[in-house]
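User: Sequence recovery, please. Input:
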């Protein structure tokens, strides 16, 4: 029996962890050098293509459209998963 393949979500989590660790190392190094500036503390704003902020309902409508495209076989599963992860990451969490 062959080994089970790693899921796309796990790969995304691993990449995010590595990126976060790299950013943390850079910030520590900058602080140690004394040249580091404070990162902005304002929450990230989700923007539409035209520069306007998207509401949660607009993002969910995009997710629905993505699901429809996958159901109608307009896009492949890999693209569907990738775009879904991107959209879910854009949902505002309070």
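Assistant: Recovered sequence (94 residues):
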């Amino acid at each position: 029996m062959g080994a089970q393949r790693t899921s796309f979500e796990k790969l995304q989590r691993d990449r995010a962890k590595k990126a976060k660790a790299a950013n943390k190392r850079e910030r520590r190094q900058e602080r140690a050098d004394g040249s580091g500036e404070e990162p902005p503390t304002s929450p990230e704003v989700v923007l539409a293509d035209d520069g306007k902020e998207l509401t949660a309902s607009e993002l969910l409508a995009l997710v629905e459209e993505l699901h429809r495209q996958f159901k109608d076989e307009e896009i492949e599963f890999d693209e569907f998963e990738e775009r879904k992860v991107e959209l879910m990451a854009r949902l505002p969490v309070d």
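Confidence is low (pLDDT under 50) at residues 39-46.
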